[in-house]
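The material for today's practical consists of a large collection of protein records. There is nothing in a record beyond a sequence line and a structure line. Backbone structure tokens are a discrete shorthand for how the chain folds in space. Nothing more is needed to start thinking about how sequence determines fold. As an example, a complete record with its sequence and its structure tokens follows.
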Amino acid sequence: MRTPEAFDGIIGAEQFAQAQEILEQRRRKYDPDRMLAQLDTLYRKYGVYRSSLLRLQDDMRRWNVCQTFRLLGPRVPKPVRQTA
């Protein structure tokens, strides 16, 4: 059972809402469907997936290539070319 505003908060409601929005943005950034769409766009533009291309994209820069492909698994279209 929850009672809204039963206790004084450590932070204000506005700051809490801002923090929740930041967390939601981070969650969306790594949504598998969104990631696949971004990889598809990259592939259509360059015809290949490469770690160097991921690093050039602002919103993909922090993606770890191995973890990305492991997360997306068989949903990633072929061909995939890994480079150092």
